[in-house]
User: Fold these one by one.
Assistant:
Number 1:
Amino acid sequence: MVTSLCESPRAINSIYFYDEIGSELFERLCEEETYYLFRTEKSILAKHAQSISDVTGPVSLIELGSGNAEKTTLLVGAYVKAHGQTTYAAIDINHSILKRAAENILSDASDLGFLGIVGTYQTGLLQTKKLTGRKLLVSLGSTIGNLYDGELNNLLLSTSSALSVGDYFLVGVDLDKETGIMEAAYNNQTAILTNFSALQHVNQRFKGNFDLFRFRYMAFYNQSMSRMESYVQAVQEQTVNLRKLNFSFHLAKGEMIRTEIMRKFTLSALNEIFVAYGFRPVQHWTDPENRCAVSLFQLSDEPTKVDSERPV
Ligand SMILES: C[S@@+](CC[C@H](N)C(=O)[O-])C[C@H]1O[C@@H](n2cnc3c(N)ncnc32)[C@H](O)[C@@H]1O
């Protein structure tokens, strides 16, 4: 936290978006007219969950950052229908959203073993080691798009070591597209609220004094990095103090703090990343407008070409 706030530009980790209020706001964001990501990915899963389960055969599903698992119910339902008794482990940092995931997933699936794991991706994955048989790791909602290079590198290294050759990774991503469509998704009332709520979460967790009335929000597409970026910008100069961390810093008027990145992928760039970590592309499913993709990879016996010294 302190390190990222000392960078230029200063940044906070997107993990702070997801306390109880932040998770509720994310659910509201998914209902925003301009936020196409949730509906589009849901429509891909509604149409293709059965094919995905045909391609992989029976598996135990492990989801990284399940949120309320609303979309995952479609996937899990297809596995139960095609293969009978199925295990689904949901990992999320936020315990309140995992309760909702359990309610959603258990409401209409009788042949299901459900495991809710409160933890980070890495600590959660360690707890799934006891699952036997073929595994399907799942990451939806373009969650991998929120990770910086080093974080994505850590995640892909831990996933490839948590899986065995032949196991699968199903990943939902947002595809690069017309700038106006992407910028509209992150410039609405709920997007603004989620960002201010992240500052409030930092205040609560670290006894901070971010004054929400002294910031404005902005989100725009950074073409050279192929990512949307959101910021809060100081409208007055101020000193922020995080008492629990014994850390304070000065913000000049106009200075920006990056709150989140949302990477936008092409299918070939996505393939390239996963291949570097020992996965082989199996199949991509997209919507008719090519807004989002749900992509299946399989861990091969090719050695990982990336190590912690050389991130993606
Ligand atoms: C963008 S939301 C996606 C939720 C859901 N998968 C969807 O597609 O609607 C990201 C989810 O990952 C969780 N999360 C974020 N960072 C995490 C981390 N480092 N470890 C575990 N969970 C995390 C959040 O609490 C949140 O529920």
Number 2:
Amino acid sequence: MAQRTWNRGLGGITIEDRGNAAGERDLPMIGFELVNGSVGDPCVYIQVPFTRANAMLDCGLNVSVPAGKLLRVADVFVSHAHIDHMIGFDWLVRANLTHDKVLNVYGPAPLAEQVQSRLRAYTWNLDTRAWVTIVCHEIGDDAITTTRLPCENRFVPGEPPRVRPLAEDVIPHPHLRVRFARLEHRITSVAYSLQAPPRMNVDAAALAEAGLAPGPWLRELKSRAALSLRMSPGGRCPEAGLPDDDRIDADGRTLPTKQLIRDLLSVKEGFKLVYVTDTLYTPETRESIVDLARNADVFLCEGMFLTRDADTARSVYHLTAQQAGQLAAQADVGELVLFHFSGRYADDYGALVREARREFPRVRACGID
Ligand SMILES: [Zn+2]
Ligand SMILES: [Zn+2]
């Protein structure tokens, strides 16, 4: 069983899988750092397992993040474009400007127009080479619209946007399973779920019972199961994406792949981190959040107000810390990390944590003590 180690970083918390005493790792974890703690602008630096292409959740002030880390950001998932969630975007572009790479930005409409407006505010008359290309993926009601903004074209779209219908609320990503939910902030605010790939375990007893010896064929079985899992509805059933007549050479015998997967493999869900911020608490948003956050290992959720200020929370379309605790309990998450605290509680931010803890025991906040 892998250990989870929480570290206080520079104004944030990072989570790392240090493995067990023998150094064995259980499941790849998604590292994260609340760049401005639980009090400052929302900005979460995400370490994606198995790659150096990292991510960010929201783009609040980020000048404290070393340039080398900003350079490793490949994807930015924006909840909405209020200034406290986007003010760091220009700095991110600045850090990546002269690098031949793609910087993907996801968020609710009208994201592409908002990003282009920011870039139009600068003068690009001198050296505009084939440096960074910003690709906006705008989440609409039933489609994602992708607009490419190449530096060499002065961040003006060189081609018409590509519109892709949305079958389910999933964003394709090479290393993570990314889901999202639309929330209510008087505009749409988008919540995100980032999940590492599942791990396939072989049941040694079932293998012996089937009279099969382990060998390289098990790797092939696992890889077919993993591919099928990615294609299955909801990403839960490892044999669903395979044709019935698919067969595999197992220890010298040709056997049906689906049956072998059912008999020999168990799927352990990958580490899941869910990010929810800036939303009104309604029956609909509650249902969407609980569905998105169910069994998350880490649930990052705003807890801006105390219950005594619930009327204010409602009027500005935000959650209370108590509601964040209730959501964590209903979604049965591992840990709740509270953030986006209102400055009005500067005398005692701990009160927000205490209110959430009355609903759910495992609550953390960062940079308030
Ligand atoms: Zn907002
Ligand atoms: Zn906000």
